[in-house]
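#random but structural
TW: two for the price of one
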Amino acid sequence: MGKRVAVVLAGCGVYDGSEIHESSAVLVHLSREGAQAEVFAPNISQMHVVDHVKGQPTAEQRNVLVESARIARGNIRDLAQLDVKGLDALIIPGGFGVAKNLSTWATQGKNCTVCREVEDVLRAFHAAHKPIGLCCISPVLAAKIFPGCEVTVGHDTECDKWPYAQTAESLRELGCSHVNRGVTEIHVDPRHRLVTTSAFMCNAPIHEIYDGIGKMVQEVVRLA
């Protein structure tokens, strides 16, 4: 039987939820590896809703679980129902929802808090020595919860290709090690069983982002 991997989403849409291409890439690569994805999201309100045409917040209010169900085609459960004992690994795609809904990184940076249910799940997988895959901005969750861990969000020198490179310094200030990696590369922290890749932290062709996520998924499944 294939590995059962929990995928935790943060809504639907890059600016206020999970990045849809990253989420899809995770699900596609899990399927290719013969693993079974079990999709979860917290049943909480989004920080806000962004009009993805205008790039501006609106007055709407939306629920993270309800919005995440769009990506999961309705096959999703409340994160509160996740039982680590029945699962082999955890993957959290990126998107601003990680920094807005799963944590307060978007407004508080290194001084952020992590959503209680998300922190509990991360700690449960970590305590069970089960691998955790994180891409794009989601490595900040591990950096906040597991001081001393090793992650990558890409490169630490800001340029057109790496517009969010300052994130690396914030991670170092949390006491973790940031390792520079290209968009098609991953970094593995064997002590904490973390597998990270930069995804859309890099301005790169979408196939390169899919390739990097694919390597992350392959390694998570291998470690499971």
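TW: number two ↓
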Amino acid sequence: MGAKESLPGDGPAEMHHYYSKFMRECPSGQLSLHEFKKLLGLQELDPQGDLYIKRVFDVFDLNQDGFIDFLEFIAAINLVIRGKIDQKLKWYFKLYDADGNGCIDKKELLSIFAAIQAINGQTNMSAEEFTNMIFQKIDVNNDGELTLEEFITGVERDEDLMELITKSFDLSNVLKVIQNGRRHSI
């Protein structure tokens, strides 16, 4: 991991720091999707990238009220930075499972990976290659769908896949922006 970054702690001072930063960025205490994009400097995305940010927002919005409040914000930061690997994999699964039916099909994985590529820009394989490779490696019963169990077991068993998924869907750069407030001073 290299040098230790400052992680969100559980201390009152640390919480206060996050709270004041959150309130400065979001005085209403409720972060809308529009504000979320603005905070990350991602207003000018193509439709694919837009879709992905909306999915990330929806997964962070635990009570599905259309806003991210401070507690949801802290939960997201803690999960992405300090979460155990199986927690992260469950979170990724939820992110890919666009229709919420408890399975990921190729179309869902393809669209989310294409969206991530649109934002991150760097990749050494196409969305199709990535999707086919994942299904080839971890769709054990070859039914064209991945259950949460297949997904977690498959990824945990394959180090290369784990690294690829963790890198591709790394949100820590998103959270660094939130932490450091890369908002353009007005």
